[in-house]
Amino acid sequence: MAPAAPAWLPPDIPDFTGRAEDVAALTEALTRPAGLAPPIVLLTGMAGIGKSALALHVAHRVAARYPDGRLYVDLRGSGGSADSADSADSADSADPGPVLGAFLRALGVDPARIPAEAAERAALFRSSIADSRVLMVLDDAVDAEHVRPLLPGTGGCAALITSRNRAFGLAGADVRLLDCLRPEESALLLGGLIGPERASAEPEALAELARECGHLPLALRIAGSRLVARPAWTVATMVERLADARRSLRMLRSDGESVEAAFEVSHRHLDAGQRRAFRACAVPDVPDFGPGLAAAVLRCSAVEAEDLLEGLVDLGLLASPQPGRYAYHDLVRRYARGTTGDSDDVPVGRAMTAAVEYLRGGAVAAYERLMPGDMLTGKLPRSSTFGGDFAHPSDAFDWFAAEYAGIAAVLRQAADFPGTLVRAAQLAVASSAYLAPTVRWLEAEPSLRALLSRADRVDDQVARAWLCYALTQTLNFTQRYEESARYGALGEGACAAAGAECAGLLSCILLQAADSAVSVREYDRAVTVAGRVAELAAATGDRPMAAWSRMLLAEAHRGLEHWTEAESELRAAVTGMIEIGERRGLATARSALGDLLYARGRFAEAELEQQECLADAAGDPSLADGEPVFRYRLAQAQLAAGAPARARESALLAIAAAEAVGEDLARARAHEVLAGASRALGDVSSTAPEVR
């Protein structure tokens, strides 16, 4: 009598949730018509991601396609059973030789015929299943060499492999990298664990609990099981405990399972350099980062840093969302911060300082490339940790776009590290080159206030001066001029207390004060303050500041209806901006001159200046926030000059530019011009929205 086909699969998980796309793809791969080569599927991903659960779920779905046997083995490639907490104390990975012996016996081979050598066993195994349909689930494998003896040789059989090792190296395998669950899948899993009544009672807390678990299946199941065991707890109670970074990982332990222990299995495979990188790079709260930041933190070359980071990716302790970028899962970051450092480990404070210094260096280089003649250029210290400059303004802007989320995160974090205050303040100021065109001032403000509060507590006058400048700029751009004036006065006092270290910054703070005065129509005060800046610029030979002060003097004179003086100052500002190569200042000065000429009824000249302004601004991403104003001013000059068709086209472009950057006032002004142009062309359907 022939032996029964082996059915070794462990039970499927009854409440398996989500992963519909993965299940469909794996099912298709394992059930396609048999060919000459067997289908080999590899599931890989970080600890706790649910590789084993998915493999078993799919194996049960396709079991009927493999009537001659469903073999399963835990190869303990990570040092213990896959994705389990007790694996940290288990034996080393399973030897393929004994596994092949067990497989052969299960398939009915006489034990006396089973050879002692692993290679001979592998050959006999392939022969034994050559004309059969057998599925092998090889769970938690080390690498290709670990599973190669266990693989079938003919197309009727198949192998489904799981491993934490992304550098598995198995040619011909269909590799599928598992990610965390989607938010809706996480909520469904938690709801199934704790019951529909508790889940529906706190839907917002349930979503927050899923976020605190990082949408990691192992963490979600442990959190759910802890809630089930504590019926008096609300979901919000669990969220509160997980939000406390000091005990969050301790909360994710239940019934012998532990997220921390699952990560420890992978951590034990790191060498000394990888452990150092794993811990140190987790210090800054950046959502993702490149080799440059890691090199600064680790004090090594970018090439060495990238090798270390790629090693962490291979072991599932770091993600690589795109080439050259790396990211920690939130729970892995918390685990990394809690690991014990070696004697040569990077101290937390030094790691944070290095990260801020690197980002500051990049931000300053980008600032100076985007605005080479700006009043702050040359006043922001460069950094040796950021290697190189940017070839084109778009390169600098793209760097900001890639790094700004990280910059914002470390600025929020830096208040807890007093030694980074000055660097963080200068980083915040340099980041204005990205904040302005993207109109993101309000996002930065809470961090600026927190940093200033810390600078006040530790009496850091240099940091206070830079932060006051950053706040006056933010407040001016968001039309809170009285508050800006107060911070300007504080910044002026901080500059005086700091002495030579902030000498160049004083003029910048004063210029912001002049800008505030113009905005609240205190034109006499604006003339006085801007004149003071001009005197300081002349005394120090500061050509950029001289050009910028002329622009503020022009605005103040215009407010006082000193038309000749205003025009003279603006033309001098245009000349000065050309001489120093400052495109943003040049475009702003030309646009202001065109607007002045428009106000004086010189419409043809006004149109010409606005066209020149747009030509100066073309292709420069740092001027995206100014484009709506430049275009609507051009449209109004064209309409006044008797060219409604051109005005209509310019107004439409102004509206599109304003909507792209969220500039409501410019959008409303452009609609007004559009309505006027449409009426002049006989189209009365266009109406202007109310100005907000």
From TrEMBL:
It comes from the Bacteria. The lineage of its organism: Bacteria, Bacillati, Actinomycetota, Actinomycetes, Catenulisporales. Residues 16-141 form the Orc1-like AAA ATPase domain. SUPFAM superfamilies: P-loop containing nucleoside triphosphate hydrolases, TPR-like. It holds the Pfam family AAA_16. It comes from Catenulispora subtropica. This is Orc1-like AAA ATPase domain-containing protein.
